[in-house]
Amino acid sequence: MTAPLVIAQITDLHIKPSGELAYRKVDTAAALTNLIGHLKNLRPRPAVVVATGDLVDGASEAAYAHLDRLLAPLDLPLAVIPGNHDNRDLVRRVFCGQQYAQPSGPANLLLALQALDLFLLDSSVPEQPHGHLDDATLSWLDVSLAASADRPALVFLHHPPFVTGIVHMDRQNLQNARDLAAVVASHPRVRLIAAGHVHRAVATVFAGVAATICPAPNHAVDLDLLDASAPAFRTEPPAFHLHAWFAGGRFGHLVTHLVPIGRFGGPHPFFDLQGRPL
Fold first, then answer.
1. Per the structure, how many domains does the chain have?
2. What are the two backbone dihedrals, phi and then psi, of residue 173, each rounded to the nearest 5 degrees?
3. Is the pTM of this model over 0.90?
4. Closest to 120 measured CA to CA, from 34, 52, 71
5. d(CA 48, CA 174)
6. How crowded is residue 166: how many other Cβ atoms within 10 Å of its Cβ?
7. In the chain, what is the greatest distance between 2 CA atoms, to the nearest angstrom?
8. How far is 30 from 26, CA to CA, in rounded Å?
9. What's the rounded Cα separation, in Å, for the pair 161 and 214?
10. Does residue 1 carry a pLDDT above 80?
């Protein structure tokens, strides 16, 4: 089998200015350093690392400067979009090498990777926690998808366009999800909608397309499906998503893997040198 084209998705880094902890408890800088170490050792190497927002925890120049220093050891192509904790103008300034689809406003991106297109949509709303895709973004997405109807496409954004059951997070999701659904439903080449924001691994179907939420490398939103407690987080095992696309057929085949971050035993063989089960 031919090796897949691999895209690593990371999200919700929540970097603070140097020396500060998120929520006075979480060392997000150390978590990002651990994540980068894991990414650098992946085989096959990802064609790109996509960071789907909340790059910092408070949109200050000091936080982005710290983020920039922490990302320096990453020797892989990186593409980022803002989340609700970000400031898109500062994102544009710090990541000025990105080829944004528009010269100002939402920091949308289109990446062409071999036979695969990646659309990165800026769903952030200045100084608001919820998400929204403006008319210009939706029009750009629609026209761009129509321009290359035979190339499979993955769509990334920060805010999930679907309900997760975690009520306090669902209040902050993509508020005009129906508008996105109308565009996606018109273009069968869209194979995945990949979001962040919730700090948990989630999978569902949106507009007839597989949809996922990527977990975070630091802390997880509490899995409260009864809306019984105040909004809270837990320090669960950190992870990220690895999207593996295999060529073949009209749009190929996409598989998403959850990859835990850390040191674990193995790999241990199933068979001895004679091929007998151990």
1. 1
2. -80, -165
3. yes
4. 52
5. 25
6. 21
7. 63
8. 9
9. 13
10. no
On whether the CB atoms of residues 68 and 95 are closer than 8 A, the answer is no
d(CA 271, CA 167): 47
Q: In angstroms, how far is the first alpha carbon of the chain from the final one?
A: 27
Domain region containing 85: 5-260
| Residue 266 falls inside a structural domain | no
Number of Cβ atoms within 10 Å of the Cβ of 222:
18
Whether residue 276 is contained in a domain is answered as: no
- The torsion angles phi and psi of 10, rounded to 5 degrees, stand at -120, 160
Written as one letter, the residue type at 75 is D
| Beta carbons of 196 and 241 less than 8 angstroms apart | no
Q: Contact at 8 Å (CB) between 120 and 157?
A: yes
Per-residue tokens: 123: 């769903």
Q: Which residues of 16-39 are buried (b: 16+ CB within 10 A; e: fewer)?
A: bbeebebeeebebbebbebbbebb
**pLDDT, tens digit (0-9, with 9 covering 90-100), for 44-61:** 999 999 999 999 998 899
233-244 pLDDT, tens per residue?
Answer: 999 999 999 999
Pairing of strands 153-157, 190-195: parallel
CATH number of the domain where residue 159 is located: 3.60.21.10
